[in-house]
Amino acid sequence: MKHTILYDTTLRDGAQGIGMSFSVEDKLRIVARLDALGIPYIEGGYPGASPKETEFFRRAADLPLQQAKLAAFGTVRKAGQTAENDAGLAALLAAQTSVVCLVAKAWDWQVKEALQTTLEENCAMLADSVTYLKSHGREVIVDLEHCFDGYRAHPAYVHTLIDAACTSGADTIVLCDTNGGTLPHDATEIVESVQHYLTHLADTHCAGQQLPQLGVHFHNDAGCAVANSLLAVNAGVTQVQGTVNGYGERAGNADLLVVAASLVTKRGDSCLTPQQLAQITEVSTFVADVANKSLAEQHPYTGRSAFCHKAGLHVSVLQKLPQAYDHIDPSAVGNADQIVVSDLAGRALLGMKAAALGRELDDAALTAVLARIKQLEQQGYSFEAADASLVLLIDRELDQYRPSFELEAFRVEADKRSAAVTDSEATVKLRVDGQRVVAIGEGNGPVNALDTALRKALQQLYPSLCDIKLLDYKVRVLDESSGTDAVTRVLITSGNSEQTWGTVGVSANIIEASWEALVDSIEYGLSLTETS
C-alpha cells in the first residue's frame, strides 16, 4: 500500500488568496484541527515577515501537537551574503520549528531577471542555506519555485539544483508549478524525468547516500492542480503539498483534502486512515468558517451538494442501488446524500424527501404535492435551499397547516434623511389568537423593519421568537429582461440555538417576496417550539 505524505500550506500559501486574512488565533485553531485530522506537515507561515507571523510561531511552540510537524517557510540566503549572516535564515531558526521549507528559484530566466544574479550563485545560495540549516538540526524541504517552467526551458539547470540539494543534505525536494499553467501530460512527463534523474544520481556520484524524497506543489490556474498532484503520485512522488479547499492566490492551489480523498478511496493510499478521512467534510467547513468564506456547495467530496440528487430517475435508482450515482459512499468522507425537490422531481424523490423532513405521504398526497411543487416552480419558486417552506407547503396540501397569525395588512415606508441615512418603518396589522394586533418597527431596510414589526406583534404570545434569528437574506432577479418589473426570488436563512432552516418567497414585488419568506421562517420556527 502506497503512503503519500500530505503537506498543508493553507496558513502560508492559502492565506495569499484574495480576501484571506488569518489572525494568530485563527492560525492556532487551524493547526490544532489539522493535527487532529492527521496531516503530518503543517506550514505555519513566513517567520519575520510581520509581527503577527513572529507572534504565531512564538505561541505555536507551546501547542501540544499529537503528530504533526510545524514547518517554517523562507527563502535561501540572499546573493552575495553568507548563510551565517542572512537575516531570513536567522528568522527561520528563531521560529524553533523542527522543519524548514526553503524556496529557491529553478527557472534560469527568473534567476537572471528577477534575482539579478548568476546561475552559479543561485545554486550556491541553495546549497549554502541547506547546509547551514542542517547543521542546526533542521529537517529541510526545498521548494523549487517555477520548476515546471524552468524544466521546459532548461532541464539541465534544474538537474544542477537537484544535485546541490542532494549533496547538501536536503530531506525533500518539491517540484513547484508556481504559475499553475502546467497540463497533466506535461506534469507527468516532467515528474517522470526528474525521477529518472534521481535514479541516475543514486547510481553515480550520490551512490550510497540517502537521496531526498520527491514532492510536488501545484497551483490551479489551468484547473489541473488536483489532477496533476494525483498523476505525480502515480509517477512516484511521495509528498503532495496543497491547501484546504484549494485556497490560494489567483485560481488557488491543489485542494489537499480532495487529493487525500481521491488517493484513499480510489487508489488505496494510506495517507489518511478511514477514521481520519471521515473528518474531512467537517474540517473543510471548519477552515472555511474560520476564513469567513462560503464553501462552494458543489465542492468535491465536502460540499453540501457533493452528493446531492435532484433528477427523479436518479433518486428512484438510488433507493435500490446507491452506488449507481454516488461515486463513493458519502459517509466515507463525513458527508451524506442530499435529496432536493424541484420540477424534475419524481414520486420516489419526493417521498424520500418528505420522509426525511418528518412527513409521510400516501399516493394521493404525493400526486397533489408534486403537482403543486411543479406549478410553483413554473412561477420561480425553488425549494432546494428552502426545506422549511417545503414542509409548510406539504402541511398546507394535507390541510394540516394552522397559521400562528393572519395578516390584515402591512405598510412599509422609507425616509431619506441625508445622503448617508435612509430609515425604514413598517406597520403590520395582524389577527393573533382572535385579537387584532398592530405593531410598528424600524430598521435599516424594509425587510429589517418588517421583521422588527412582526416580532413586536407576536412576541408577547410567542416568547420563543427571541431565539429565532434571521441569519442570511438573498435576492435573485429571475427575469432580468423585465428590468425593475422583474420577478424576484427571496431566500431567507433563519435559525435558533439548535438548527437552521431556509424559506423562499417569489413575487414581482420584492417586499411581498420578502414578506412571504419571512412569514414562512417565523411560522416554521414557531412550529419547532410547539412540537419540542
Task: Report the major sheet.
Answer: 8 strands, parallel, barrel
* Quaternary organization: single chain
What's the helical proportion of residues?
40-55%
Radius of gyration: 29 Å
Strand order of the largest sheet: 1-2-3-4-5-6-7-8
Mean pLDDT rating: 88
Topology, number of strands:
16
Shape: elongated
* Share in β-strands: 15-25%
Low-pLDDT runs of 5+ residues are none
Walk me through this protein's architecture:
Helices cover 40% and strands 20% of the residues. The protein has helices at residues 24-37, 51-60, 87-94, 108-113, 119-135, 147-153, 155-167, 184-203, 225-234, 256-267, 274-277, 280-290, 312-320, 347-356, 363-379, 387-397, 446-458, 510-531, and strands at 5-8, 41-45, 69-75, 99-105, 139-145, 172-177, 213-218, 239-242, 308-309, 338-339, 406-416, 422-432, 435-443, 469-477, 488-495, 500-507. The chain has an 8-stranded parallel β-barrel, surrounded by 8 helices. Strands 11-12-13 form a 3-stranded antiparallel beta sheet. Helix 1 crosses helix 2 and helix 5 runs parallel beside helix 7 (155-167). The longest helix has 22 residues, at 510-531.
Question: Main attributes?
Answer:
eight-stranded parallel barrel, alpha/beta, 18 helices, 532 residues
Kindly summarize this structure in a few lines.
The chain has 532 residues and is an alpha/beta fold. 40% of the residues lie in helices and 20% in strands.
